[in-house]
Structures are given as C-alpha cells and as structure tokens.
C-alpha cells in the first residue's frame, strides 16, 4: 500500500505588533501572514505465508517520509544575509553558529573575531565568522543540522512459528533528524531552570570528566569546554558543537515461546501451556552513545526502560 501526499499548504498564524486601543486592555493582533507546505509519502507491506502445517511466517514493514517548507514568512529583509531567511526551509529547521573548535589559550582569544555572548575565554567554543565582519553575532547564524522532527520514520518485524516454537520481533527507527545536547541543563556543577537561572548543582558526568578542555589538556576538540561553576553563555547558544545525529534503530519488542505438547498436559486438564520470554527496548543502534537518543538533548531525565519478562499462558 502506497500513499503520496504533496503540497498541503497551511496558513501560519503569527502575531503582529500590538495597537493601542482607545479603552480596555492592550492585546497583540494575530493574522495569517505566513504560509507553509508539506509533502511526502508513506507505504506499508504485509506478508503472510504457511509453508507447511508446522511452519508459518508473517511480516510487516512501514515507512514514512515527510518534509515541509516555509513559502511565506514574516521576517526582516535578509538580502544582505540570505542564510538567515526561513523561506525554503523546514518548519523545524534550527539556526545556530558554526563551531570551529575550542580556544586554545588567551592569545587565541585575542587574535580571533569578537563573540558577543558575554564572558568567554580559553577553553570555550570558537565560532566561525560567516560574514567576515570580525564580530560573531546573530548575523552569523546559519541553518544547522537536520530538522528536529524526523523526516523518516519506519518499522519492520516478523512473527514465525515451527511446530511448538514461536518467535516474534519488531524494530522501530527514525532518520534525518538532529538534536542538541542541552548545555545548560547538563552543564557540570550548574543546573538551571527553563530561563537559564542556576537552581542547583549537577554532578560531573564521567564522559565530561574524561574529555574536557583544561590547562593540562588543551585539546581544542574535547567533548566539553572548560569546566566552570556557572553556565557560560558563550557555550550554550545554539551551535554545531553540541549538535548530534538523532537517527536510531531500536529493537522495540521480542518474544520467544514454546507450547508444551498436548499429550504432556492433557492429564492435567489443560488444552495449552505455553512458556515464553518477552522483552521491550532491549537494543538500540545509534551513532550517539552518551544516553538514549530518544531523550534528545537532556540525558539527565528519566530513561527509557528495558523490560524483560518470563511467564506462561494456560488454557483449560
């Protein structure tokens, strides 16, 4: 079964500047001044076959590809910096700064373009000057990574049986998406609220402890910048340093069973006794290794659980 959807246009509701009323409350006006389209395809395949009276097999696969694009978007005139325009990009496309490396030392900081993100120094992230004006600011933001919503979702699985044995499994995956390590909420020693205010202290994750910039290890490509007892704003702006591939493939479920022969159990008054093992989320294949990729940027939240069960089913 194959379905194709194309150019489903949607008006985007945006807020215009508020107009002072003659009396009463002041409220921003909203109007449909943006336009977007979506297109894609999806298909599913089912297979059923009985090879003999003792051996059977079923299978299923599904695949979805979806993309979107801004056609009209209310924004400033970006003719001088066309890379900042959202027109022509996916609705969940992210903009940010291109990280070149970490500053090696203070001399490296002095000889580089100024970065307008507050405090920064040796061991912090060095960004690329896109428009070559010797200042790193909003004009240097470019589209980075894939959209945060996966363009591709898919799954496949089989169920089969041979005589008294049965087996089933299902895999689930996604592709063409990006996420960003949450540098504020996973920052060592400084946990923050939604506004970036430090509220408590985080533990130093082992992976950060083993691979960060320091005076004794001036690695310009270390996983984590210099350690600090506060959040360094320069290192938390949206950037390619903390950008990661969100693609993954997960063994979502698996089950193996064995039904005891009826002549073994009929004396006990049973028509069926099946022993089985089942599990969910047992394996995940991903380029990202710090934590489960479905947790995206903040791996300090409650993890996705692996569940394993052993049991039996009885029919009288």
List keywords for this structure.
single chain; 316 residues; mainly beta; nine-stranded antiparallel β-sheet; 3 helices; elongated
Could you tell me how far the N terminus lies from the C terminus, measured between alpha carbons in angstroms?
A: 40 Å
Q: Name the poorly predicted regions.
A: none
**Main beta sheet strand tally, sense and closure:** 9 strands, antiparallel
Broad structural category: mainly beta
Order of secondary-structure elements? EEEEEEHEEEEEEEEEHEEHEE
Number of helical regions: 3
Estimate the mean pLDDT confidence: 87
Report the count of strand segments: 19
Helix content: under 10%
Quick recap of the structure?
This protein is mainly beta and 316 residues long. It is built from three helices and 19 strands.
Q: How would you portray this structure in words?
A:
By secondary structure, the chain is mostly beta strands. It is built from 3 helices and 19 strands. The strands form 6 sheets. Strands 1, 2, 3, 4, 11, 12, 17, 18 and 19 form a 9-stranded antiparallel β-sheet that branches. The relative contact order is 0.13. The model has no long low-confidence stretch (mean pLDDT about 85).
What's the SSE blueprint?
Layout: E1 2-5, E2 10-15, E3 30-50, E4 55-72, E5 94-96, E6 99-102, H1 106-110, E7 114-115, E8 125-127, E9 135-136, E10 142-144, E11 152-162, E12 165-175, E13 178-180, E14 191-192, E15 198-200, H2 206-210, E16 243-245, E17 248-259, H3 262-265, E18 272-285, E19 307-315
Parallel strand pairs: 7-9
Antiparallel strand pairs: 1-3, 2-3, 3-4, 4-11, 5-10, 6-8, 11-12, 12-17, 13-16, 14-15, 17-18, 18-19
């Amino acid at each position: 079964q194959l379905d194709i959807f194309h150019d489903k246009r949607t008006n985007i509701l945006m807020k215009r500047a508020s107009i002072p009323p003659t009396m009463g409350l002041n409220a921003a006006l909203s109007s449909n001044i943006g336009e977007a389209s979506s297109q894609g395809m999806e298909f599913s395949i089912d297979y059923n076959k009985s090879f003999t009276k003792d051996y059977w097999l079923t299978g299923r696969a599904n695949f979805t590809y979806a993309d979107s694009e801004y056609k009209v978007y209310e924004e400033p005139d970006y003719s001088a910096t066309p890379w900042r325009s959202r027109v022509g990009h996916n609705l969940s496309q992210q903009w940010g700064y291109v990280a070149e490396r970490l500053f090696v030392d203070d001399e490296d900081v002095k000889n580089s373009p100024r970065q307008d993100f507050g405090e920064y120094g040796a061991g912090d992230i060095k960004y690329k000057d896109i428009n070559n004006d010797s200042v790193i600011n909003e004009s240097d933001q470019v589209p980075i990574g894939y959209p945060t919503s996966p363009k591709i979702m898919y799954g496949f699985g089989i169920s089969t049986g041979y005589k008294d044995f049965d087996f089933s499994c299902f895999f689930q995956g996604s592709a063409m998406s990006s996420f960003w390590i949450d540098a504020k909420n996973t920052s060592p020693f400084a946990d923050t609220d939604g506004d970036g205010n430090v509220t408590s202290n985080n533990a130093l994750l082992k992976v950060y402890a083993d691979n960060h910039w320091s005076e004794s290890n001036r690695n310009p490509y270390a996983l984590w910048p210099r350690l600090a007892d506060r959040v360094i704003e320069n290192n938390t702006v949206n950037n390619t340093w903390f950008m990661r591939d969100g693609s993954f493939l997960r063994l979502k479920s698996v089950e193996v069973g064995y039904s005891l022969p009826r002549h073994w159990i009929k004396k006990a008054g049973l028509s069926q006794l099946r022993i089985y093992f089942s599990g969910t989320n047992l394996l995940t294949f991903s380029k990202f290794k710090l934590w489960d990729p479905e947790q995206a940027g903040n791996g300090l939240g409650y993890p996705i659980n692996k569940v394993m069960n052993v049991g039996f089913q009885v029919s009288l």
